[in-house]
Specification:
By secondary structure, the chain is of the alpha+beta class. It folds into 4 domains: about 180 residues, D-amino Acid Aminotransferase, Chain A, domain 1; about 120 residues, OB fold (Dihydrolipoamide Acetyltransferase, E2P) (Beta Barrel), CATH 2.40.50.140; about 120 residues, DNA primase, PRIM domain, CATH 3.90.920.10; about 180 residues, DNA primase, PRIM domain (Alpha-Beta Complex). The protein is built from 13 helices and 34 strands. Strands 3, 4, 5, 6, 7 and 8 form a 6-stranded mixed β-sheet that branches. α8 packs antiparallel against α9 and α10 packs across α11.
Length: about 650
């Protein structure tokens, strides 16, 4: 059922009102676990809007639901531009607002009054979080509701007769839509003429001033009569100039999704002195108006005074609004853990991360054959875990352990990225024994993390020190490295003894699984000591542990001298040495994660596969970064050494 567009609200009894959501109309068909999600023209939305489809599969009802798929911002306002650009959960918060019930448990409800259909729909809730009931308002007037919607920056409102039945495919006057147009003054910087057009001009090129420069905000192609166009051309003639007045010359022939092959246009530039008023639907993320329409010239405005208007935040509007229904109209998107970056269908996807465009290819390639985890799964994990892992990677040179064909394929280490990485990637120089000058890659932000993962670097291997103090590690590491002859219970016992040694000297250590076979114990140093000092301290700790557990531990560097015992490795505390970062995936069966632990978790029954690509994020989001003290104040090594000297 479709609504009829009207130019003003009708205040009368027997009507209910709701927000006009700026999205895609969709019908959900749910029947005994089978789900379809279809558009107005009967095309499937199941793949395109997969989070909605997946959520509906968990809603155990047998019904046909009518609603609107939208992308909401933090204030609960829908954006059609964001919806058009939506490819994955990282692009915005998808919500399916439902407002009508057409079928339930085998019964056709379309002939029931709307108010009864709504009551039945409400009884089906709660639904999955992504599915929301579109609120209706009855104890208000259309004029007041429209005013509140305008205040909040919405597209418009819908008015529906309470007793209306559902007319499939019909544009009925029982449902009305009233749109709200935003208005703004803009400066005219030129006009276009389309090829083979007989009109005096095809569109106006307009903008606003920012920091003394005219910034382009779009083309106005509607709202003119023939007489007005001729009159405007007479005004434009003395202002014609050879060069564009805009800070960046607009691409007037740029194709769009809806006009992939636009008519060829030629621009004529004007001195930026004339001001007009324009109405539009919204401003896109790149600052361009959507659906602009000419409203008239503004001779009372000086062009230099026309700047971009910044909307008042919704929270401020609500505080000042006298109409209490404003606060009920929108449900803001709640903050929380990150969703996935890449959608589950496209093998190649391009995303802009930290202003850098990354092309993610071969996303269907299986990296963990036994579990069928793909490169896409790995990249989605690193995107979601980025806020937690980045503090341990930032400003540290990396040794890339690349598995371009997954954990069963050929792998290789890459240290030198000279001439191989994009210009925006930060590097750190080193000199080889052969006299060559080369460069490590340095992680800086999310884009560099995902760049490494996209190369097939399943694990992240940072230095212990940062580029600002390359000879001073941030932590001291004790790496418990077992052989095939050791049990993991022995590794656990060794970790417990290591903690006892540290407790005896009042030093706090922090442990994590290696994600492979061992356990890593970190002691914070805050870059106050050299690698040599750090290694000597680590050697003392390792020696004490070995003295306590001589039967199955060793501190021998040479493998053949360890005799199948757990290596209590303190030599990781040296320049350029790397170890899997906290929260890093490992190229091991089960897609294990190097997971920080509470010490009371280091006990019999602990398994490496307890923490993997499928369950680690839930733990991390719940607990937060329990490894964070490793990057904190650091120990006073001199004080500790004085205390342990005989």
């Amino acid at each position: 059922m479709l609504a009829t567009l009207v130019d003003k609200p009708v205040d009368a009894s027997g009507w209910m009102y709701e927000v006009k959501w700026d999205g895609y109309r969709a019908v959900a068909l749910l029947n005994k676990g089978n789900v379809q999600l279809i558009s107005r023209n009967n095309k499937t939305f199941e793949e395109k809007f997969y989070p909605v489809f997946n959520a509906l599969k968990t809603w155990k009802i047998n019904a046909v639901i009518d609603g609107e798929i939208v992308v909401l911002n933090a204030d609960g306002i829908s954006s059609f531009t964001d919806l058009q650009n939506w490819r994955s959960e990282a692009d915005g918060e998808l919500i399916f607002y439902v407002f009508d019930l057409l079928w339930l448990n085998g019964y056709d409800l379309t002939q029931l009054p709307l108010i009864q259909r709504r009551e039945l729909l409400e009884r089906l809730f709660p639904a999955p979080d992504i599915v929301r009931m579109s609120t209706t308002f009855r104890d208000t007037s259309a004029t007041d509701f429209l005013a509140a919607a305008s205040q909040l920056g919405l597209e418009g409102i819908i008015a529906k007769k309470e007793d209306s039945i559902y007319h499939t495919g019909v544009r009925s006057r029982d449902w009305l839509k009233i749109k709200i147009s935003k208005r703004h003054e803009v400066v005219i910087g030129g006009f276009t003429n389309n090829e083979n057009s007989s009109k005096p001009f095809s569109s106006l090129l307009v903008g606003v001033f920012e920091n003394g420069q005219l910034q382009y905000t779009g083309k106005i192609g509607t709202g003119f009569s023939s007489a007005l166009q001729k009159e405007l051309m007479r005004t434009f003639k003395p202002l014609i100039r050879k060069t564009s007045p805009f800070a960046t010359e607009p691409d007037i022939n740029k194709p769009s999704r809806f006009r992939p092959d636009p008519p060829k246009a030629v621009a004529t530039w004007l001195k930026p002195q004339l001001v007009c008023e324009v109405s539009y639907a919204e401003i896109t993320s790149d600052g361009v108006m959507r659906h602009p329409s000419f409203e008239g010239m503004r001779t009372d405005k000086d062009a230099k005074d026309v700047t971009r208007e910044i909307p008042v935040p919704v929270t401020q509007t609500l505080e000042k609004a006298t109409n209490t229904l404003s606060a009920q109209m929108l449900t803001p998107v709640k903050g929380g853990s990150r969703k996935t970056l890449l959608n589950p269908s496209e093998a190649t996807q391009v995303k802009k991360i930290n202003k850098h465009e990354l092309k993610f290819a071969n996303l269907n390639k299986v990296y963990w054959p036994e579990e069928k985890y793909t490169k896409r799964d790995m990249l989605n994990y690193y995107y979601q875990v980025a806020p937690f892992i980045l503090p341990y990677l930032k400003d540290r040179p990396q040794s890339l352990n690349r598995f371009p064909n997954g954990i069963k394929g050929k792998s290789f280490y890459q240290k030198d990225v000279t001439g191989k990485a994009p210009e925006w990637i930060k590097t750190f120089p080193y000199h080889t024994s052969d006299g060559e000058d080369k460069n490590f890659m340095v992680a800086t932000d999310e884009s560099s993390l995902l760049y490494m993962a996209n190369l097939g670097a399943i694990e992240m291997n940072p230095w212990n020190s940062r580029t600002s103090k390359p000879d001073h590690p941030d932590w001291c590491i004790i790496d418990l490295d077992p052989t095939d002859k050791n049990t993991f219970e022995q590794v656990i016992k060794t970790a417990q003894v290591t903690k006892a040694v540290l407790d005896s000297i009042n030093v706090q250590g922090y442990c994590k699984t290696s994600g492979s076979t061992g356990i890593h114990i970190y002691i914070p140093l805050n870059a106050k000591y050299t690698y040599d000092e750090c290694q000597l301290f680590g050697k003392w700790i390792a020696t004490q542990v070995h003295l306590e557990l001589p039967d199955f531990t060793s501190i021998e560097r040479m493998t053949q001298n360890r005799k199948g015992k757990i290596y209590v490795d303190y030599l990781q505390n040296r320049p350029k040495a790397t170890l899997a970062a906290p929260y890093s995936l490992r190229p091991k069966p089960g897609a294990t994660v190097s997971m920080p632990l509470h010490w009371d978790e280091v006990k019999k029954g602990l398994k490496m596969k307890d923490f993997n690509i499928t369950n680690s994020l839930a733990r991390i989001n719940e607990m937060g970064d329990i490894f964070k003290p490793v990057l904190g104040k650091g120990i006073d090594m001199k004080k500790v050494l004085r205390a342990i000297q005989p």
